[in-house]
Amino acid sequence: MIQDSVLGPHQEILTARATDKKILKNAQDGGIVTALLVYALEKNIIDGTIVAGDGNEPWKPEPIVATTKKEILKSSGTKYTMCPNLAMIKEATRSYGLEKIGTVGTPCQVMGIRKMQTYPMGLRHVTDKIALIAGIYCMENFPYDSLKAFIQDKAETVPSKVVKMDISKGKLFIRTSDNETAIPIKETHGYEQSGCQYCMDYVAELSDFSCGSVGAKEGWSTIIKRTDTGASLIDNAVEDGVLEVVETNEGKFGLEMLRKLATNKKKKRQKNIDKALDIGLEVPFTKSDLKEDILENR
Amino acid sequence: MSKTITISPTSRQEGHATLSLEVDDEGIVTTGRYYSITPVRGIEKMVIGKRPESAPVIVQRICGVCPVTHTLASVEAIDDSLKIEIPKTAQILREMCLNAHMVNSHAIHHFLVAPDFVPSEDYKQVVKNISEIRKQAQFVEDVIGGEGIHPSDIRIGGMAHNITKNTKNKIKTRINGVIKLIEQHVEQMTKYVEAKEFPEDLGKHAQPVLATSNTYGSRQNISLSSINEIMPNSWYADKYTSQEDEEFAEETKKTAKKIGKTACSQIPLYDNTPVETGPRARANKYRKFKDVGVKAQHLARAQEMINSAERILELVDKIDPSAQTMAKFNLEGTDRLGVGVIEGPRGTNLHTAKISSDGFISEYNCIVPTTWNIPTMGMATEGNHYDYAPDVIRAYDPCLSCATHMIVVDDESKEVLKEDMVQL
């Protein structure tokens, strides 16, 4: 295990994508999360998973318990708004009767799951049933109203016409069937949810494995193998041809970029944390002068 | 010359109680008195003035051993008061949850009595079996009730969630899998109980039984007008203190008076006499089981585990995973006394509730299983050596935290104020 304060503890980093064309068609990037959840389901590593399914409004996801490949495929792709997946964990073990739950979450959600496992208050017979935690990279997340503001005010369209949203190269792209609007990320500041201002985690450091597009060429994803559970799942998936792997770009647009973004997030957020602590606000993080390494996520 | 033997607190049971025994020269119990000394929590009073939906959540905290029973009795009482007809699937889910709880709770009791019956060489394996049985029963409680301890999904008007088809199949597989183990465990326990050298008539008494249903509970089979709750003082002490002649020794009168003031539970009488409730009572009334006494109680309890597991299998097939489990209702008070009767592991659990016309709980009362058994348990110790008395008590699996009520004593005169009872 490599102890790394920027990318979190990990075993190996690789660049991969799903081999299944069907998965790639709807995938955000390399279709890693979808492919691995389906694989884990088929291999009986998990018996169901909580994913961001369709809600009542377009692009407003609702957490759903998926127990079939079809349901997982239907919910693939990134939705840039909050989806309270953890709210369903207990129910998944109750009326859905799951015993090996796969979960997908942003870094804050992964932290939440780990905290649940450490202090299982009100979670009897729940945390022992979490079998897999997939983490996704996240700089910040937007409330649904913010997302609507981008779509309606900046892209001048309506949520139902949007076919894909993507953040890359410093821009938020909103695509409809006949148009594409690029909003510089700078313009989205102030729209993110307030908790994100204090989050030091870019790469879901506490997950079993994390993945995202940063550090890989288009259509591919960078995967960080962390725990033994995550590592063996990925190794087996590669061996079984569910994922294909290419050489990881260690350079400026590869891992350097990933490290740069993670470091920037940490530094920027540590400043906010220090500021909040200085004025007496309670944030569950440590002030920089009390840390040996200010990049540490704590 | 008689003397008094006091065992306080009695062990391997839930809660705290005292057993006070008058014995003759041979050590044979002539008068047995069993009474609760568990402190009062005031739960029945706590729910007054609250919204009806708070009641099941609060009263299930009466006990962590059988919260399912209290939750069900509470929602049944409120459903009855508000005249809510719950959907059929919800009714099935409730009954399944109760039966899973029955298996689980009886298994816990086997933990408690194992040192009395199980030979040391088999101990480890019996405990392992009990744990496995409990695990599977708790799974059913978890998925149906939302929570094994303090179930959150049993609600006024039905159940908060139905179960999925997948869960339905899992329950079936798991109970089918564990039923063999339950049968084997019951057979084993029966063997141990039968081999135990107890006096022939240990625990026998002449009191009638109280049971309302084989596997769930029915308000039709109980008559509120037959129930009479009396104060502990009148039960334990009146007989001794009202007579001024020399019939009772000074010592006896003193003990009786003291117990009357210390006992923390009311004495419920059915048709003016104490009754026995619990697995043997149900077996006697619904399963043609005629034996009486300590061994009979253990055997009936063990047999009931199979009965309940079979009932779960019967019910699970009737579940429609797509059906509604909540009734549509307006929460309007009726000022009508609702009755909830549930056959809990330890016997008939009766909750009554009234919702006032402005929608708040105006009356709430519980007569819980062990309360029924308390006077009977004392009587059942009579006629045998006092060494066996704790075995008699344990055969009832008493659970005292739920049976506790409190009496109010005048600070100056130290007299019990009979009209003033702070409940549960």
What does this structure look like?
The complex is a heterodimer of chains A (298) and B (424). Chain A has helices at 21-26, 32-42, 69-74, 89-93, 107-118, 144-154, 185-188, 228-239, 255-278; strands at 12-18, 48-53, 62-66, 101-105, 130-136, 162-168, 171-176, 180-184, 209-212, 221-225, 243-246. Chain A is an alpha/beta fold and 298 residues long. Chain A folds into two domains: 12-139 and 200-290, no CATH class; 142-191, Nuclear Transport Factor 2, Chain: A (Roll), CATH 3.10.450. The radius of gyration of chain A is 19 Å and the shape is globular. Chain B has helices spanning 43-46, 54-59, 67-81, 88-117, 120-145, 165-195, 232-236, 238-241, 250-262, 279-286, 294-316, 369-380, 389-395; strands at 3-7, 17-23, 29-36, 154-155, 158-159, 209-210, 227-230, 267-270, 276-277, 337-344, 347-355, 361-367, 406-409, 416-422. Chain B has a single domain (3-422), classed as Cytochrome-c3 Hydrogenase, chain B (Orthogonal Bundle), CATH 1.10.645. In chain B, strands 1-2-3 form a three-stranded antiparallel sheet, with helices on both faces. In chain B, strands 10-11-12 form a three-stranded antiparallel sheet. In chain B, strands 4-5 form a two-stranded antiparallel sheet. Chains A and B meet through loops of A and helix 5 and helix 6 of B.
